Amino acid sequence: MRKEKSLIEIRIAELNQGVHEYTFTCKASDFKNPEIEEPAFNGDIQVTVAAKKTDTEIVTAIETVTDAELSCDICLAPVHRRLSGQFTIFFVFGNQGNEAHETDGEYRTLPPSATAIDLTEDVRETLLLSLPVKVVCEAYPECNALRTDEETQTEDDQTQNSNWKASLQELKHKFH
After folding, report:
1. Euclidean distance between CA atoms 166 and 32, whole angstroms
2. How far apart are CA 9 and CA 20, in angstroms?
3. Matching InterPro entries, A to Z (predicted)?
């Protein structure tokens, strides 16, 4: 019985040492996952994978870029955003019994018989993590007011943080 070909897969059986770049273009519907098929991901998804192979491991750097159609959290107006995400995974050559690498999502053990690395699920997760938590449009004054308030609050936090650090430095010099 033959396994279905993965959407985003890198063949490693005859991969030479060094850096190798791969590009993939897919659609959200290719993932066959309701979280990705939402209206937000309606365009092409560009995936770039840089794989660096050494004697002991393969390091893959995944980068995703796509356009998304979201809705403003305040007024529900349509908002167009360009989303990008990055994720790095270390695949270590070894036996499956190595539990230290299996517990961490960024470190995985490859069996000696592995001929390919399936990155489809990792790309799906990278896409989901690239979605913004809060979406605010620029079309209406009410939405812009909230955005301006958030920016002012961030600046105030930075000012308070710098004052706190200055006081801490004074105490440090006083006691040393």
Report:
1. 53
2. 13
3. YceD (IPR003772)
Q: Can you give the pLDDT at residue 101?
A: 45
Q: Does 54 map to a domain?
A: yes
Q: Are the beta carbons of 89 and 62 closer than 8 angstroms?
A: yes
Residues 128 and 153 in one domain: no
Each residue's pLDDT tens digit, 107-149: 899 888 889 999 999 999 999 899 888 888 877 777 776 555 5
Provide the domain limits for residue 129: 9-137
* 155 & 109 share domain: no
Degrees to nearest 5, angle at CA 31 with 25 and 34: 135
How many helices (DSSP H) and strands (DSSP E) are in the chain?
3, 7
